[in-house]
Amino acid sequence: MTQIWVLGAVLCLFGSAYADEVCYDGLGCFSDLPPWGGTKERPLAKLPWVPGMIETRFLLFTPKNKYYHEIKADAKIMKVTNYNKLKATRFIIPGYLEAKDEDWAQHMCKDMLKWDSVNCIAMEWKAGVRAPYAQAANNARVVAAQVAHMINFLMGNYKQTADKFHIIGHSLGAHAAGEVGRLVPNLARITGLDPVEPYFQGASRDVRLDTSDAAFVDVIHTDSLPFTKNKLGLGMSGNMGHIDFYPNGGELMPGCSKNSGSPSNLDGIWEGNVNFDGCNHARAYQYYSESTVKAHGFVAYPCPDKESFAAGMCFPCTGASCPLMGQSAIKFNLTSVPTGTKFFLTTGKKEPFGRYSYRAKVLLDGSVWPNPGFMYISLKGDREETESIQLHVGMLSPGFYELLINTDKDVGEIKEMTFQWNNHIFNPIKPTYSASRIELVRGKDNKTYNFCGGDRVGEKVIQSVPPCKT
Ligand SMILES: *[C@@H]1O[C@H](CO)[C@@H](O)[C@H](O)[C@H]1NC(C)=O
Ligand SMILES: *[C@@H]1O[C@H](CO)[C@@H](O)[C@H](O)[C@H]1NC(C)=O
């Protein structure tokens, strides 16, 4: 092995055009021949850097250590850690790094440990990722081999089996996770967080993340516009896992602006030299982190496309048709939906991102003279209540008003609703209105609530609308 390494390194001295393979101790050999390089999707053929230049680190978090413990594939080092062989182990592999959020993988481990008793290993390879893109894409292969080496070590040292390991990768890290799965068969799960597009979309299954890499592969798409045509979407489009999630349609996230820059600047974007905030791309791991703490804000609806979802055509869920995006996606019974199903959901602009969905249908009773104004409703549950939600603005006249509600409050079982209205301009006639009936359907399970309002109320008076007495 060492001999071949020397050969590869020597060949490197004569320029990469001649070097087609490098081998690194304990990690195996890396070729720059197709499918790894010199293909339509991967025009620049690059050999990965030596591990020392990539500076990979394994940072272990457990319920017993608040701060990380850097580990190595070494029994003596592991002995003094809190690694628990009876628990599952998760690796988190970052890729693209947002300058202001470089240590997100460590934060995700901390979030996970609030609820789950697991070994969480945050990976770091900042030196290897901050390289010209084609180089970084190949350096990720070494990181994958290092993770595979660590898993093989842990399986030997602790008699663990591959089905105890879950790899979570963002961007280039998602494909590195896929590569770990190719090297270590029968992993429990791989989560691809907006797997990066350039050099991977359309490439061989051996190169990119796909369903053969683990027993369960779940993917979250947040920046899936094409990279070309000035769209600069960094994430892959189209289903690629056993289950694929498209929050907010999967292309542009609320609270983020459209990506901008010059498409020829892939290297610059990657190395942080171009003004590019990566907001859409980074949302994938932000949603996932939140899902480890508040799973139920991420109910996802099977739907043919984002337009049908936005039009409310895939609302509500029935039976067990809806998975939860994020950590709890594994609980979903995949055989209950056809393969190729896409799952859609709505999130907020900022934390908390999770949303709870309802459809309200309000029967307005009151003055028959059309009157310009505003109407609001709110939901009161046994846990929390929502703010007032605008139901309608424009002419108020008796009849039905319907609204899809996405609230950031997990209100629990709904006990009561409220109704309120305001005039748009001063109205000397002093009209009165009542929400005489409200039918509320909960998105996650199609549970229907019926509320009946009483007397009409004047402007700005809150009407309580309790459950109907039947
Ligand atoms: C999963 O769904 C299939 C088809 O709907 C059903 O036959 C099967 O019993 C379900 N499995 C579990 C574990 O619920
Ligand atoms: C939801 O439940 C209602 C009955 O409460 C039923 O009429 C309707 O078909 C259900 N919706 C779906 C999508 O199954």
Automatic annotation (TrEMBL):
Pathway connected to this protein: Glycerolipid metabolism; triacylglycerol degradation; Lipid metabolism; Glycolipid metabolism
GO CC annotations, alphabetized: extracellular space; neuron projection; zymogen granule membrane
Localisation per UniProt entry: Cell projection, Neuron projection; Secreted; Zymogen granule membrane
GO biological process: lipid catabolic process
Binding positions for Ca(2+) per the UniProt entry: 208, 210, 213
UniProt key word Secreted: yes
Key words of the record: Calcium, Cell projection, Cytoplasmic vesicle, Disulfide bond, Glycoprotein, Hydrolase, Lipid degradation, Lipid metabolism, Membrane, Metal-binding, Secreted, Signal
CDD domains: Pancreat_lipase_like (cd00707)
Catalytic activity annotation: a triacylglycerol + H2O = a diacylglycerol + a fatty acid + H(+); 1,2-dioctanoyl-3-O-[alpha-D-galactosyl-(1->6)-beta-D-galactosyl]-sn-glycerol + H2O = octanoyl-3-O-[alpha-D-galactosyl-(1->6)-beta-D-galactosyl]-sn-glycerol + octanoate + H(+); 1,2-didecanoylglycerol + H2O = decanoylglycerol + decanoate + H(+); di-(9Z)-octadecenoylglycerol + H2O = (9Z-octadecenoyl)-glycerol + (9Z)-octadecenoate + H(+)
Annotated catalytic residues: 171, 194, 281
Record-annotated disulphide pairs: 23-29, 109-120, 256-279, 303-314, 317-322, 452-468
Highest rank taxon of the organism: Eukaryota
Stored InterPro entries: AB_hydrolase_fold, Lipase, Lipase_LIPH, Lipase_N, Lipase_panc, PLAT/LH2_dom, PLAT/LH2_dom_sf, TAG_lipase
Signal peptide: 1-19
Domain Lipase stretches: 21-353
Predominant location: other
EC number(s) recorded for this UniProt protein: 3.1.1.3
GO MF: galactolipase activity; lipoprotein lipase activity; metal ion binding
The protein's enzyme class: hydrolase
Pfam families: Lipase, PLAT
All copies of domain PLAT, residue ranges: 375-459
Membrane topology, record value: Peripheral membrane protein
Family stated for the protein in its record: Belongs to the AB hydrolase superfamily. Lipase family.
Protein name per the record: Triacylglycerol lipase
Organism phylogeny: Eukaryota, Metazoa, Chordata, Craniata, Vertebrata
